[in-house]
Amino acid sequence: MSCPHCQGAEKVFDVSTARGDLEDYRQNGPAKTTQLLLDAIRRATKNGLTLIDIGGGVGAIQHELMGSAVESAVHVDASTAYLGASQEEAGKRGHRERVNYIHGNFVELAPEIEEADIVTLDRVLCCYPDMPALVNASTSHARQVYAIVYPRDTWWMRLGGRAMNLWFWVRRNPFRFFVHPASAVDKAIRANGLTPRYHQNSGMWQVAVYGR
């Protein structure tokens, strides 16, 4: 990956973090915001669809939708540790062969990846510096549904983001946390022909689903 920020993500989302998140998912299921996203996707779709899960982590969205709404998926992630955890869980659940795992920066890889019915970014916009580039690349791949979880655009989230980024700076990690303006995110998504179908605030996050 040519993106220094993405290289920093490898250090943040390492094997220890991925293992902890996988065990938490196995014990407690999807996070609250992920479950809200899943419920909204199920309401907006039928069965037998394809999925691109960008920054999918341990693969909760894939695992929960596989066999119902989704028949096959592509998981693109900048963290090799998370890809490994997702593959492990997929193998345990019996759908490993129906998911294509790709390591790298989706913006760079987008021209090589085919469109899908559903595109998801669960807590991914906050991990990428160039929001318009990521939104443009990902929305162009969504044939039916575009579903995201990203930080609420509030003063306390921006303050928390600055504190996190100071910590990354001290540790000389180029990774940064971003609270992109919600109005700019919405405008970028709508500009690619998608319209809002669902929105819900939950703690630090907002869950949004768009459709064509």
From the N-terminal CA to the C-terminal CA, the straight-line distance is: 31 Å
How is the largest sheet built, in terms of strand order? 3-2-1-4-5-7-6
The global form is: globular
Q: Could you tell me the mean pLDDT?
A: 94
What CATH architecture label applies? 3-Layer(aba) Sandwich
CATH superfamily: Vaccinia Virus protein VP39
Helix tally equals: 9
- Compute the number of structural domains: 1
| Main beta sheet | 7 strands, mixed
Low-confidence runs of at least 5 consecutive residues: none
Range of strand content: 15-25%
What does the oligomeric state look like here? single chain
- As a whole number of angstroms, the C-alpha radius of gyration is 16 Å
Features:
212 residues, 24% strand, 7 strands, single chain
Your description of this structure?
- The protein has nine helices and seven strands.
- Helix content is 44%, strand content 24%.
- It starts with a helix and ends with a strand.
- It has one domain (4-211): Vaccinia Virus protein VP39 (Rossmann fold, 3-Layer(aba) Sandwich), CATH 3.40.50.150.
- It has 212 residues and is of the alpha/beta class.
- The mean pLDDT is 94.
